[in-house]
UniProtKB/TrEMBL annotation, chain A:
Its main location: membrane. Belongs to the binding-protein-dependent transport system permease family. Pfam families: BPD_transp_1 (PF00528). It is found in: Cell membrane. Residues 8-19 have a biased composition (Basic and acidic residues). It comes from Streptomyces luteogriseus. GO terms for cellular component: plasma membrane. The keyword Transmembrane applies. The keyword Cytoplasm does not apply. This is Arabinogalactan oligomer/maltooligosaccharide transport system permease protein. The chain crosses the membrane at residues 34-60, 109-134, 146-166, 192-215, 255-274, 303-321. PROSITE patterns: ABC_TM1. Gene3D superfamilies: MetI-like.
TrEMBL record, chain B:
Residues 96-287 form the ABC transmembrane type-1 domain. This is Arabinogalactan oligomer/maltooligosaccharide transport system permease protein. PROSITE patterns: ABC_TM1. Residues 1-31 are annotated as: Disordered. One of its GO terms (molecular function) is ABC-type maltose transporter activity. The keyword Transmembrane applies. It comes from the Bacteria.
């Protein structure tokens, strides 16, 4: 989804502003701010109308018992008015500790946590390994790089269907496994293997981004640092540990955060890989979608409540992450 | 991208003391074994990256819908029948049109609306600045589940379900803030001295932005446009929910129509997937150099 990595330049900026005399500063300040607000206005309006208003409306819906049966709708020429009621925080209570809360929320929550951790670890580990390999002087480097970026170049919704053909019972993966005398799991039917397959496909899709970003990071590390450390007698591992990793830190913290957000919110892969057939492999995002749009009657209120919970989880996570970075005096390049 | 090469970062398996006893190697040489191992790993990784796509292309050449189960039989009857069918007898061109309308609309709105904001947050500090940055950041974390229900209600009140405008607006919820972020990053790399020179010469901030910075920022605008394009192109959830009539499907939705509960025309699906993927991948490769630079420029220089 969204990509924005940039350096944090916040502090420096203030010093660069032109400094007129103190008497004029107020007046100029007003002008400066007036300009700033005028320039920010288009996005502020768009965000207000398209994000804040729906968010507030969604928040209101979570406090009601809205479903597709009692919201306002038009059937043919008849308009039926909404009849849903305000029920306070019941939806949240029901999701978090109502009967069967474990089966509906907590089991998906645990799986989503595991899914996010596993995918990001795999993305980062494999991405870093490949970036290190590609950062050597090597014949065919450009060709390798082009091939390795391929999963990123093809739209996800296309490749997922390719994976479905491969993972189907009797598809090429099981045929190959059979040929090797290995067991042939039901990738798209058995819960454990569904989860395994989901992580595998997401890893395949997500590695190129990490690889390219980390490769950029590696190439920005000053080569003289390596020379100096080598002069000091550092071996390859020590150079990796004390030069490469610190040099990658600002890129790493950023791509890991982005990776966590994207993986946590990864909708297309699980939705397209399994459709409605895998209740236990759904992560919270697809599960919320299923409540709101994948069943009859559609449970709008609960689906919206899941959405709010998901956003809260991400915001809490990001705040802690940033605080942890600040404590270690690292900067998030966001 | 820079071409600095770092020799010493051998993969985990190849770590060894720099000078093995008995032989002295120059700094820029690697052992033959390390080279071979690097190539081996990269070849395996490249094949893994390539295979699912290549397999899709291969399956698209088999005329039967169950050919994916017996790939061996495809060799005997390779044909482009699927492609002919998809192009002539399905909604392919309708989907193409919808996709282009939605994607170009979203990109245009995203870039135009976000440009001045990106500049403002890059150059100016004003009360509310931190809040705005926070909103832009948080918007990038929105799971689709947060907005999809209220958006559905609002759009149906406005009779915008199943309309291009509705989908464009919904896509803008993520694309606009993200373009603003991306362009802020790009504007940050343009020296502030240019602005100062412009001001000294009597330009207003608007004038500086429009006449000095925007022309310089064309590559940044292009990167933002490419990203919006690719993001909107790959968008699945909103498109699946808000587009109801099959001549308005985008590719992401249209492709799902080949598989219903009772029938799966996998051969046609494969052919359509290839028809979508090849131009998309070509486009990606055309712009990837810019994309990658735009992506990593800010993050790595800081």
């Amino acid at each position: 989804m969204t990509v924005a990595i940039d350096r944090a330049t916040g502090k420096r900026r203030g010093e660069r502003e032109p400094r007129p005399g103190p008497a004029q500063r107020l007046k100029n300040g007003f002008h400066k701010h007036w300009y700033a607000y005028a320039m920010v206005a288009p996005v502020a309006v768009v965000l207000g109308v398209l994000v804040v208003y729906p968010l507030v409306y969604g928040l209101y819906l979570t406090l009601t018992d809205a479903t597709s049966l009692n919201t306002a709708r038009t059937i043919g020429v008849n308009h039926i008015d909404a009849t849903y009621k305000f029920i306070g925080l019941d939806n949240y209570a029901d999701i978090l500790w109502g009967p069967t809360a474990y089966d509906r929320f907590w089991s998906h929550f645990l799986w989503t946590g595991f899914w996010t951790a596993a995918c990001v670890a795999l993305h980062y580990g494999i991405g870093l390994g490949l970036a290190l390999l590609l950062n050597q002087k090597l014949r065919g480097r450009t060709l390798y790089r082009m091939l390795l970026v391929l999963p990123w170049a093809v739209p996800t919704f296309v490749t997922v269907f390719g994976w479905r053909f491969m993972l189907a019972d009797g598809g090429v993966i099981n045929t190959a496994l059979e040929g090797l005398g290995l067991p042939t799991p039901l990738w798209l039917e058995d819960t454990f293997w569904q989860r395994f397959a989901a992580i595998m496909v997401n890893t395949w899709c997500g590695v190129p981004f990490m690889m390219v970003s980390l490769l950029g990071g590696l190439q920005s590390i000053d080569a003289s640092l390596y020379e100096a450390s080598e002069m000091d007698g550092a071996n390859a591992w020590q150079r990796f540990r004390y030069v490469t990793l610190p040099g990658l830190r600002s890129v790493s913290t950023t791509v890991v955060l982005l990776g966590v957000i994207w993986t946590f919110n990864q909708f297309a892969i699980i939705f397209l890989l399994f459709g409605n057939t895998a209740p236990d492999a759904q992560i919270l995002v697809t599960w919320a979608y299923q409540l709101g749009f994948g069943q009859q009657p559609r449970d709008y209120a609960q689906s919206a409540a899941y959405g709010i919970l998901l956003l809260s989880i991400l915001i809490v996570f990001t705040s802690f992450y940033r605080r942890w970075l600040n404590r270690n005096e690292q900067q998030l390049a966001i | 991208m820079s071409t600095t090469t770092v020799e010493s970062s051998a993969p985990a398996g190849e770590r060894r003391p720099v000078t093995a006893p008995g032989k002295v190697r120059g700094r820029n040489e690697r052992s033959r074994g390390a080279s071979l191992a690097s190539h081996a790993v990269l070849i395996v990784a490249s094949l893994t990256a390539l295979f699912p796509v290549a397999w899709l292309v291969f399956l698209s050449l088999g005329p039967d819908k169950d050919d994916y189960l017996h790939p061996g039989r495809i060799w005997g009857k390779l044909s482009l029948e699927n492609y002919a069918y998809v192009l002539q007898d399905t909604g392919f061109f309708d989907w193409l049109k919808s996709t282009l309308v939605v994607v170009l609309g979203t990109t245009l709105i995203g870039v135009v609306v976000a440009a001045s904001t990106g500049y403002a947050v890059s150059r100016m500090r004003f009360p509310g600045y931190r809040k705005l940055m926070w909103v832009l950041l948080v918007t990038q974390m929105f799971p689709i589940a947060v907005l999809i229900v209220p958006m559905y209600q609002i759009l149906s009140d406005l009779q915008l379900i199943d309309s291009y405008l509705g989908l464009i607006l919904v896509n803008c919820t993520t694309i606009v803030p993200y373009c603003a972020w991306l362009m802020k990053g790009y504007f940050d790399t343009i020296p502030f001295e240019i602005d100062e020179a412009g001001r000294v010469d009597g330009l207003t901030p608007f004038g500086t932005f429009a006449r000095l910075i925007l022309p310089l920022a064309k590559p940044g605008l292009a990167v933002a446009a490419f990203y919006s394009f690719l993001t909107a192109f790959g968008e699945v959830a909103f498109a699946s929910t808000f587009m109801l009539s099959d001549d308005k499907y985008t590719f992401a939705v249209g492709l799902q129509t080949f598989v219903s509960e009772h029938d799966a025309q996998r051969n046609l699906m494969a052919a359509t997937a290839v028809l979508i993927a090849i131009p998309a991948a070509l486009f990606f490769y055309l712009v990837q150099k810019n994309l990658v630079t735009g992506l990593t420029a800010g993050g790595t220089k800081g």
